[in-house]
Predict the structure.
Amino acid sequence: HHLSLAEADRLMGLTGDHRILFALASCHGYQLHKIGTEVGHGSLMQRLLKANSAEGEVDRVLEEALGDGVITPNELKAVLAAEMERQAASMQLMSKLREMCEARAAA
């Protein structure tokens, strides 16, 4: 049985887990971030630190996965998950910068 788009959509709605959506976007060269995600929440410094921390986690997971020179399916899954978290943190940082720019323009 192959998962249909309608079934994937229903599954994401039931579980609140949208990794399928992010993975599809990534496979096709896109990045997603949820509109309104944490807008106004967290300082610029907090978001910058979160983005840097996520970058370090990608490096850590990748170094561990490459340790024996072989990438297993589970290692690839871990690297992809860490990268998706890094992308989300980066998009949240960009969202905060956009928010700050718009607030200044409106003033």
Remarks:
- The chain is about 70% helix and 0% strand.
- The CA atoms of residues 41 and 84 lie 20 Å apart.
- The two ends are 56 Å apart (CA to CA).
- The mean pLDDT is 86.
